[in-house]
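Next up, sample data:
>
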Amino acid sequence: MSMRINTIVTHLRPDDAHTLIEFLYQLRTVLMQTYGSDIEATLQECCSQHTASADDDDVLF
């Protein structure tokens, strides 16, 4: 399997940048409508695991 490499254009005309921002906003909206509760659950799980592992790494003197 080959790895796909995407190049991100960093210099856009203002109207193209606006179009891209609008697309990303619409994409976020659709993804949150479809997967919002799953995303929130995953984030909560990751945060609680991170907090638990951080507590385990604390060294008390």
Observations:
- The CA atoms of residues 39 and 56 lie 26 Å apart.
- The radius of gyration is 19 Å.
